[in-house]
Design goal:
This protein has eight helices and ten strands. It is α/β, with parallel strands linked by helices. The protein has a seven-stranded parallel barrel, surrounded by four helices. Helix 2 crosses helix 3 and helix 7 packs across helix 8.
Length: about 250
Amino acid sequence: MNSYLVDINADVGEGLNNEPDLMPYLSSCNIACGGHAGDLQTMAHVVRLAKMHKVKIGAHPSFPDKENFGRVVVDMPATDLYASLKQQIRALQNVLRAENGQLHHIKPHGALYNLAAKDEKTAKVIIEVVKSIALPTNLYVPYGAVIERLAREEDIKITYEAFADRNYNDDLSLVFRKNNNAILNDKNEVLNHVLRVVKHQKVKTISGVEVPIKASTFCVHGDTKNALEILRYLNQELPKNYINIQ
């Protein structure tokens, strides 16, 4: 029987204060660093929790738009976006330095993540930010995305990400959050969704077709209403299916 290794991540430091509950069930986390949410105090608190639970730490920069929680595309010059993303990541790096922690990865947030999957100009800005970081850093990207291709061309280490608690369209974009079928809340549906991606490298879309996909890290959104239940269930059931979390 084949065995598999996966990473389970969540977006944290976003003001929900549920990190102490989530951390025991994560292997990596993405910390909001001031663009859509988060401040230095919150970052420091979450970094300490991550270190305590041996959870890999990532930066979760976004469009600088707290009003819309980074979920709306902001039309801004590339130089301004670069400066904002650099500033956000640097803020987390300063906290990590003070807390003796290490930056493992970068994962863009919300509208920025989705836009970089298809828009070359936006993806290039993120790639340039990653290249400017002194130590090699993973970039979490969706399979088949524009940002994945550009990262490969620049020899940036990538980790394919899929969303455990979100439904997909046929083009591998996420179903718009305001749609009724955007979010998976049933823990068994989430488990089957993850198993299909890991074992068969396919995802069943909302139209019922199976589309090829790859992922080795799976995100459970911290603001999904039963995120803790889902994380506990995945931690319990994945090893039974020869899938280990690390």
